[in-house]
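Q: Predict the assembly, please.
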Amino acid sequence: MLNIAIRAARSAGDILVRSLDNVGKLRIDQKSKNDYASEVDRMAEQEIIQIIHKAFPDHAILAEESGMHPGNDHVWVIDPLDGTTNFLHGFPQFSVSIALKNKSRVEVAVVYDPLRDELFAASRGDGAMLNSRRIRVARQSSFKGALLGTGFPFKKQQHLDAYLAMFRAVFTDSAGIRRAGSAALDLAYVAAGRLDGFWEIGLHEWDMAAGVLLIQEAGGVITDFGFDDRYLASGNIIAGNPKMHQLIYQAISPHVTEDLI
Ligand code: IPD
Ligand code: CA
Ligand code: CA
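A: Predicted assembly structure:
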């Protein structure tokens, strides 16, 4: 199953890279405020679905652009292009994210950065890899010197005040905060120890599912804003090594409103 996920991610990644020169000519739909999809998102998604369905015709699929395709207890969760806004601007930070859940537990995960040819992969119980190298979360144990990742709630601006208060609480002591624009890749970077921690409001399951397993298999911790494991449903996520996760949780907790738990 991991091999199929890898094949599908690479194949979709090729489509993204080949289309990058033509972004100016793409047909773009606005799905909701600040939420766009192009023909490339759909083409890449079709490619992934075709590869998965050929190998596992009975499996279900939840894909960002085409929604739910019913099947058995195995559900593939797919974001064919994570970082569409970056992609449409030619800003070179985006990824393909593919996860396989079995009865709501993520079993297989792949996040692929086609521009750097970096493939982050994990199978439950087998650890997490970047290409052929084993990865671990960073050892960082305080905000001092820490590099954190985040995403701005640009689609859910009702949370802006809460978010800015969280930002201030974390910003003051850390060495830097990055908003790179592909949540799946941000989570993969936490797994690889390139980011010491991460938090974001309002993600979708397909942004997170693969990254979650990568981080767990790399020795990290993920929770929602209530220190619980309902992040795939709420979309609100805190990630890091156990210590950094706890520090971010403590820093942002005072600013977490009821509708964020
Ligand atoms: C988005 C990216 C971004 C995050 C947004 C996501 P998309 O995914 O992951 O980093 O901040 O919340 O929706 O729409 O480019 O697939
Ligand atoms: Ca996404
Ligand atoms: Ca997407």
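The mean pLDDT is 96. The chain has two domains: 2-135, 147-260.
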